[in-house]
Amino acid sequence: MKFGFVTSVALGRSCIEEIFRIGGKLDVLVTLQDEVARKKSGRVYLDDIAAKHKTDLLKCKNINDDDIHRQLEPYGLDWLLIIGWSQIAKSRILSLPRRGVLGMHPTLLPEGRGRASIPWAILKGLKETGVTLFKLDEGVDTGPIIFQERIPLAPDETATALYEKVNESHRSLIANVWPLLVADTVRLMPQDASKATCWEGRSPADGRITPAMGCEEAGRLVRAVTKPYPGAFVEHEGVRYIVWSGELRRGVECPHAVAHENGALTIRLSDGIFISREFEQLIPPASATP
Predict the structure, then answer these.
(1) Which end of the chain, C or N, has fewer beta carbons within 10 A?
(2) What is the pLDDT confidence band of residue 241, given thresholds at 50, 70 and 90?
């Protein structure tokens, strides 16, 4: 069996590292061209891992480009894994490998199709989420499932902690499924479309804390969009404060909407206050979407 792997972010690189760690072989790696990668936040490079394992490395602007299709075709791939890639693979690339193209999604599909999976899991107050390995089709996260791994969520779960859990689940899931892929014994389970939910994309502007929010809502927002995401924020007197963490005090009143003193930021909410000692100041605030 011949395998290719497409990624440009840490979650995908973790899977590549795990495949090599368990003795697997990848025939070709694909990532973004360097000039494109430099403009994308959170992008990783594969040059070192490709050199270490003597694996061919191709670079492209778009996975659907004719040029990358021509370069991949001679490899005669059975499976192509696309994990951690923002571009949606179209029919031509989906039909290139003999067995198909595989992806991973950080929810328990069919729940949570779409974007911003980690923030939404926290914002929705879920008790568990997970990672799904599935075969890509021309829909968005709609293809048949191969394997899932569940992730329990703590009541005070943060995006930082959940991202790491998702990363570890990517590693363990690929390690469990890899022998089945090599032996060509994987089973495909169609998704139950009647149980599907779709989560919308989020932008940094969605991290705004408002005075109308209650403690529970504001607390979830801060935990959901903290690092590695852009963070929750509040604006006051020409300053934008990016809030990474803090504590809630219900029933406590504050005379000011926002107060910054003695190294602490206090934000008034509808039923209490939020106090943060881990925040950043931006002057002036961004005039457009942050």
Answers:
(1) N
(2) very high
Query: Among the CATH numbers 3.30.1300.10, 3.10.25.10, 3.20.20.370, 1.10.4100.10, which is that of 204-282?
Result: 3.10.25.10
Cα 218 to Cα 40, 152, 212, 221, 234, distances in angstroms: 29, 22, 10, 5, 11
SS3 label, residue 151: strand
**Would you say 282 and 240 are in contact if contact means Cβ atoms under 8 Å apart?**
yes
> Residue 239: helix, strand or coil by DSSP?
strand
What are the angstrom distances between the C-alpha of 84 and each of 12, 44, 88, 170, 235? Answer: 5, 10, 11, 11, 33
Average pLDDT score, the chain: 94
Calpha distance 212→16 (Å, rounded): 45
pLDDT in tens, 24-48: 999 999 999 988 767 666 789 999 9
**Are the CB atoms for 119 and 96 separated by under 8 Å?**
no
Confidence band of 253 (pLDDT split at 50, 70, 90): confident
d(CA 210, CA 264): 18
Q: Specify the pTM.
A: 0.90
> What pLDDT, on the 0 to 100 scale, is given for residue 40?
66
In angstroms, how far is CA 224 from the centroid of its own chain? Answer: 12
| Backbone dihedral region for residue 25 (phi beyond 0: left; psi -120 to 50: alpha; all else: beta) | beta
Question: Are the C-beta atoms of 28 and 55 separated by less than 8 Å?
Answer: yes
How far, in Å, CA of 186 to CA of 42, rounded? 32
167 neighbors 151 (Cβ within 8 angstroms): no
**Chosen CATH of 3-199 out of 1.10.760.10, 3.20.20.140, 3.40.50.170, 3.20.20.370:** 3.40.50.170
Q: In the chain, where are the structural domains located?
A: 3-199, 204-282
Q: Would you tell me how many other CB atoms lie within 10 Å of the CB of residue 175? A: 15
